[in-house]
Structures are given as structure tokens and as C-alpha cells.
């Protein structure tokens, strides 16, 4: 019989949600457990649960307190949460085009200087990475990616910007990200992608999901403009490839 894992913490989040916390830090093993629990609950729903929201290190479980209470729900969640995650199955893999530097990546040169290298080297390191979508959050379609090369780990900006462009490709701390909508950000902006990870009237509305794999490839700024027009019209300009 497979060994069980240490139990997560069950934290009340208001009167109709519980946070199932597997770690207090960003951790790929914890994220794997989060996604496994999320999938298990989707496959075998517990009566009373209304929604689940996966994050890097915890799963937020919304429930109807008229159907199930906090303690009863915890008793049902824990036996599932302590089971070892199943082997990772074949994930969807996306190749996402990025126009690096210039007006699309205004922090690229500063990042290169801070890391004592060249902009081309930063692009090569970033585009050479193999990333996993760990969670979606902050704004619709904002894809938080694990797997950033350690040589690119750096503190976030001391002065966050009040507005950064839609499609920004950025790094911050130990994370990489795909920002779909224009929004504030304290991350370092390396480039922009024409890909819409969220588009309200498109099917699918959300392109990336937690557990998907992502790689990037560089395009010139003319290609960006062409692909951006196609994406605005609803075309999925990311490439889905075999894992």
C-alpha cells in the first residue's frame, strides 16, 4: 500500500470556504498535490462543494454551509489530500511567441545589466526554459509559471508600475508569468506576446490551465503586429504541440 503524505493545514476562509494548504512557500511538489486534489474533487465531487481554486501551494474550496459544515468537509478532504499524487500524465504543451525587448520589453536591458550579461543572453535563457502553469490568478488569464531558470531569479521592482501592457511576458522573484490584460505590475518586463490567454467571446475563453506546460520562442516586432491582429480577431496564435 502506498505511503500517505503529511496532512495539509485546513484553514477557514470566511464562513463558506476552506483553504487546504500544503506548503507555506512556493514549491513544485506542493503544487503537484494541489492540482491532484483539485482533479480528484472534480472526478468525485463532494456534495456541498461549489467551486475550487488552485494556487501554487493551496486549494481554496468554496462550499455551501447549508449542505455541509467546515468540520464535516475537512473530514472528507483530508483522506484524499494525504494520498500520493498519481504519476504526472501527459500535459498540454503550448509554444508561445514573444517579441522581446524594445517597446515590448522595456526592462530587458536593465535585467541584463543587473545580471551582468547581455539582452540576447537573457532572451536565450528565458526562451530556453520549460515552464509549468502553476496557477491562474490576479486578473483573468494571468498565468503564473514555475520552472524559471535560477540564473534569472531576481527581486521584483522596488517601484511597481501602475499599468503595464496586455500580453506582457515578465519575471519576478522565482517566477515567470504571462499577463493577459493591462494591469499593475512589479515584475520585470522582458517582452510581449500576441497570445490571449483570456478572451471573453472566444471558445475557449481561457487558453492555459494549471498543469499545462509552456515554452517561449522569439519573434520580431513585425510578426508581433501581424499575430496580434489575428489574435484580436479570435485566432489562437499559440502553438499546441505534443508533450
UniProtKB/TrEMBL annotation:
Q: Which UniProt keywords apply?
A: ATP-binding, Hydrolase, Nucleotide-binding
Is the keyword Hydrolase assigned to this protein? Answer: yes
Task: Name the coiled-coil region(s).
Answer: none
Gene3D superfamilies per the record?
A: 3.30.1360.40, Cyclophilin-like
Stored Pfam families: CT_C_D (PF02682)
Q: Which InterPro entries match?
A: CT_C_D, Cyclophilin-like_dom_sf, PxpB
Q: Which domain of life is it from?
A: Bacteria
Which protein is depicted? Allophanate hydrolase
> What one GO molecular function would you report for this record?
hydrolase activity
What SMART domains does this protein's entry cite? AHS1
What taxonomic lineage is listed for the species of origin?
Bacteria, Pseudomonadati, Pseudomonadota, Alphaproteobacteria, Hyphomicrobiales
Question: Where in this chain does the record put each Carboxyltransferase domain?
Answer: 8-207
